[in-house]
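note to self — DONT lose this again. spent like an hour looking for the file last time. sequence + predicted structure for the chain T wanted, 201 res
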Amino acid sequence: MHLARRPLGCLLMVLAIGLLDAGRVLAADTAAGDRPKRTPDSVYVPTPDDVVAKMLEVVGVTKDDLVYDPGCGDGRIVVTAAKKYGCRGVGIELSPKLVREARANAARNGVADRVQILEEDIYLVDMSKATVVTLYLLPGMNVKLIPQLQKLKPGARIVAHDYGFQGHVEDAEKMVTIKSKQDAVEHQIYLWTAPLRTKSP
């Protein structure tokens, strides 16, 4: 469940439209027997493929990693990681329709044996075994995930696309800007290493 970076005014408009679209999608999914376990927190916007590649490069994925992607959508991040680096991946997605797409994506790319797609609520999944967590979620969603991310083993890496933790944790150790050739938009990539250092309120 990802939302692309936009100026505040545009972001509010996108959110409003997105919520209407989410309602329509939810109604369509319900009609098709695909009702999610709860109403999603945001609409799914795919990460451009070149940004996916840069995220995985910045976080330094290797074949020994276990990559978790909460809100994985069509599974492109974990599928790309498994295909390019030979690692294992776990995608977490609320939408049954997107879960099917992600599993089909893994099979189509020959990595279904290394990629697992869970149809679950991202806030209820234990991610403590992850060595890498990738995030493309709204800031408030990232903040809500902090308790789970604090259970990661020391040295695990967290890479976020466009949105951080709204000042709830120390600044990222690294920030990279990439202009995607797919959407001609500048995207920010942030890197943290566990344990996250939270700030006092």
